[in-house]
Structures are given as C-alpha cells and as structure tokens.
Design goal:
158 residues; alpha+beta; five-stranded antiparallel beta sheet; three-stranded mixed beta sheet; 4 helices
C-alpha cells in the first residue's frame, strides 16, 4: 500500500475511533493483512473490537481505499504491547521491556523516554547498569509482562 493509502486508512480509522471513544494505537499492512490496534484507558473488549472492525470495514469499502483483496484484523495491543512512538514508551515508564537492535536484544526496566530515545536499567555481568538507545537504533520493542500480570485473575473489560 502506498503512503497516501495508509494516510487515508488512518484518517478513516481516526474518525471511527473518535465515534467509539477508542484510540488508534497502531496501523500496519503486512502482506494482505491490514492490522489495526485500538486501545482505551480501561482496555478493549471483544465487543469493542468487533464494532470498530465492522465500522472500519464498511468505511473502507465505501471509500474504496484498498482496491486489492485484504484481511482486516482489529485487536488490542495486549499486555505485552509493542512500542512504536515516543509516547508509547513514555506511557510504560517503570515497566520491563524487550528491545531488539541490530546488535541484539536488550531487556531491562524502562527508566527514561523522551523524543530522541530511551534509557533502560539492565544487568551487565550481574551488575546493575544503564543502556541508552536512540530510537533509530531500535528495530522493535515491547513490554515484558511480569508473571503476576500474566497470571492474575482479572476480569476482561466490558
């Protein structure tokens, strides 16, 4: 998909998100799959994903934005959410993250995030250390949930 099509899809998604009181967290096209991650401060239910998916699908068909066959996936970023923008990192300060760089994987507690990069508290040879990374060095990153977060008995948001 061209950049202008992604921009048009993003605009349509933003308008629907405003109507449904959700945030568009991320949009990407991978092969023939259009993946849209949505979020709210209290989490995202299956019902919310379904409503957003139907509304976006209808709008994309109405505007004929994607002319080839595609699959639409709408979901929450999840507990181990991927991190894309500086504000995504800032929102999870104090959490453990896993960062993939060209040099390898770095895991640690996110202690700083600004417009240029991030700071992690890590363990280097068993000793506490800090790693500072520019966003340009980061290939991908995601939150690493603790066992307590993964295995707590929380009710799904409604």
């Amino acid at each position: 998909m061209s950049g202008s099509v992604i921009e048009a899809v993003s605009q349509a998604a933003a308008e629907i998100a405003a109507q449904l009181a959700v945030e568009v967290y991320h949009i990407e096209m991978s092969g023939r799959t259009l993946r849209v991650l949505i979020d709210t401060p209290t989490g995202v239910s299956l019902e919310t994903c379904s409503r957003f998916s139907q509304a976006l699908s209808d709008e994309l068909d109405r505007q004929d934005l994607i002319t080839s066959r595609y699959f639409l996936e709408v979901s929450s970023p999840g507990i181990e959410r991927p991190l894309y923008r500086p504000r995504d990192y800032a929102a999870v300060l104090g959490r453990n993250v896993r960062v993939q760089t060209a040099a390898g994987v770095i895991e640690g507690r996110l202690v700083g995030a600004d417009q240029t990069g991030v700071k992690l508290e890590i363990s280097h040879d068993g000793e506490p250390a800090q790693a500072t990374l520019d966003y340009q060095e980061i290939r991908s990153a995601r939150v690493r949930a603790s066992d307590a977060e993964l295995f707590s008995k929380q009710q799904e948001p409604q």
